[in-house]
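User: Before I run my own analysis I want an independent prediction to cross-check against. Here's the chain; please return only the structure tokens and, at the end, one sentence I can use as a sanity check.
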Amino acid sequence: MSMKEAFLKALADNEDDVETRMVYSDWLDEQGEHEEAERQRQWPAAKAWLVEFCRMNNPDPDDPDPYECSIDYDELLSAAEEALKGDGGDHRLYVSCGSNMTMCDSLRAQSDEVWEKCSILLGLPLPPQNDRDSSFTCACWRLRHRGIRAMNVRWFCPANAGSSVIDRR
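Assistant: Structure tokens:
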């Protein structure tokens, strides 16, 4: 097993092992892989930011509203991976929001930060800047701005039941 494979295995076993990640970044610098070394250094802060973003923008787990969905870190990161890979040039992030207006508003307001952190965590490049200038849109946001209170927006969402879209094209 090469040194790189050993580091990657250790990080796959425990992605939150900051000490191993920092040693790996130093090793990458020694190998001339400076961009990847820098990404590895940014990784712990990016994960902490995204975990906190999800925690702060999701409903209380004891909330009785069945339509106010939670979007956890793993779900958001998985959706971001598909979007960053951009199958056929499609860089839209589909997440189930229900009537979680807090998450919808936060994804719209902080979409650049969400994309940046997901890019760091996944090791996937962001689309070109002109592809990243579009804003977050979702059915519940559009309804609210038309003066309609979105009680159950799942039916209205365009991509699939309950999905919001961050369009990065």
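Sanity check: Residues 34-57 form the longest helix (24 residues).
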